[in-house]
Amino acid sequence: xxxxxxxxxxxxxxxYSYALRVTETGFLQQLHYGGRVTEADLxxxxxxxxxxxxxxxxxxxxxxxxxxxxYGFYGRGDYREPTGIFERKDGASMSRxxxxxxxxxxxxxxxxxxxxxxxxxxxxxxxxxxDFSDIAVDLYYTVSDDTNVLVRNAVIRxxxxxxxxxxxxxxxxxxxxxxxxxxxxxxxxxxQERNPEIAPIAHGVTRLQSLMGxxxxxxxxFMGILKENCTEESGECVGVQLMYSGSYALTAEWCKNGALxxxxxxxxxxxxxxLAGGEEFVTPQALLTYSNEGLGGMSRGIHDFLRERVINPAxxxxxxxxxxxxxxxxxxxxxxxxxxxxxxxxxxxxxDTFVLDDGWFGKRDSDWSGLGDWTVNxxxxxxxxxALIDRCKKNGLKFGLWxxxxxxxxxxxxxxxxxxxxxxxxxxxxxxxxxxxxxxxTRKEVVxxxxxxxxxxxxxxxxxxxxxxxxxxxxxVYSAALPAHRQGEFMHRYILGVYDLAQRLMxxxxxxxxxxxxxxxxxxxxxxxxxxxxxxxxxxxxGYERTKIQWGTSLCYPLSSMSCHVSVCPNHQxxxxxxxxxxxxxxSLGAFGYELDLSKMTDEEKAxxxxxxxxxxxTDELILKGDLYRLKSPYEKNYFCEMVVSKDKSEAYVVxxxxxxxxxxxxxxxxxxxxxxxAVYEIEELKIEASGKALYNAGLLLPKLSDFSxxxxxxxxxx
Length: 719
Ligand code: GLA
Known about the structure:
Helix content is 21%, strand content 30%. It has 719 residues and is of the alpha+beta class. The strands form 7 sheets. Strands 6, 7, 8, 9, 11, 12, 14, 15, 19 and 20 form a 10-stranded antiparallel sheet that branches. Strands 21-22-23-26-27-28-29-30 form an 8-stranded parallel beta barrel, surrounded by 5 helices. Strands 5, 10, 13, 16, 17 and 18 form a 6-stranded antiparallel sheet that branches. Alpha-D-galactopyranose is lined by residues 327, 357-358, 402, 469, 471, 517, 519-520, 536, 539.
């Protein structure tokens, strides 16, 4: 709900309020962001705000940065990190933005060419105008009564005739009052994505960013701000994430006014965007999620929001295909003869879809060649894709296919025909990561070409699933198609090209299910989820490592968005041996599948697989729609345990793993949250009945098992 009168602005979501006002000197002041307040409290909030507001009878510019403000400007009294920097023709870039007008619109704004939130109740748009240039900034706030997510972004307009260079164009600023805060970040590397780290925020600027052209394995595009006492189940926190998939920055800065300033958007390192007279620049949306129920409440709020309002509604709640993917089974070394047994076995085990990974096209016998040539390699696959698809159909399976649309090998027909389409700078030896170069997706003709060749394959074959990979970062940032003074636009234009291709393919093939991937989980973000309901979580499928990766990922992405596969042991990434059962149990907490040669499994493993697939089909509704409760962190203790509860609390699914067997490890309990306390539940596997209250307050004794063994419990409400 939005209450606005041109002087004061009060917004409410389910459990938070956000209050602003215009000071007598025309600045937009933030009065409150946190738990609910009422309109009657505004008077009181304004009184507090008055004490730090810059007044006309003082040097108002020098007083500005005492105030909590909604947009930071550069070179004029605001010494916090600016939200935007606007350089004019003469090189000057000082600015001072003051309130001009507001409007309230119904629903949520649509952003052409970029991912955006698909629905919302109302949107407040506040326009600020620069006193020293022709820049106007529209600040957007979309709120809905039934979510705790506030959607923010800024549109920067050049209202004059001369071009203005944007040197920074962040999406939002929000401030939290004095207090002690910790920052939660999801850090990692290939094979160890999204490990949560929580640390106190010290003075200065704490900055999470990617310069890689994607949101990266290293620091996910998410920042949690936790009040000192925030735990998994209680206390206040705010999750900040961008609906963006390119180079980004998120910052938290302790300011001299004692407040913590949060900002973020497109990474400004190397950025520059020429805004001609009359043009506007739309920044990516940021999602700010408030929780007073700890990190668990934050995650559940984000999960619901992404599922209900971001992920493609045509697919989000549809049963996900249970796939078998051939990558770890064969790598590049396959013919149809090697693949047929996998397909034949899959259908016997209840699997729905066979996904053919890298190596089916061009001269792709290794990672040195073939990328860019999206035509089937008939030397490897006699009868082409058709023969494989027929084999799948005969077995009642659907067919999925891997692409890496953004890439090219120098040893490819595409590169020989269009060497200038690869990102490289004449005279500079290109960096060849995984022996490949990145295509210049800032150029429309390149995106058009890739759309043409990929859509031809999708049109000519019965393909129901596409895995869209992206296996290297961008270097030698430069486009021969951009003039010198516009090279700073490259990174953002690149990701706009990716979004354009994704949108065109989704629109042309609405029934095809797209899975994102980037060397595992290197581009796992809310922007990608707008196009791809599911993303390959990590190349690391080890039955223990995955508890950590999936735990971290679940902090800000729903379980259904994580592709989780069972692979062989010793695990290809860690060499660890974990029980088959454990690998299946942990993978069942996401979009489930297999990544191995089914035909080489023992009879015992086949029987287990059949059981796992059947069991997954019992719980997949919960994974798609339920509420997640993280019960035992693999980062803290010797156990991992998570639980998903249906919205009506009539059923729940618990998965746990004991990391190491330890002697004399008595009295280890898990306390089941999220159940109806007054109801009685039956736990099928334990043949126990107990009330929701008892399961939460007295808990359940954890099984004493050996290293890396696991369990799953199904709970059903009896009364
Ligand atoms: C990446 C992906 C893998 C696989 C390979 C193929 O590493 O994460 O799942 O598709 O590429 O080259």
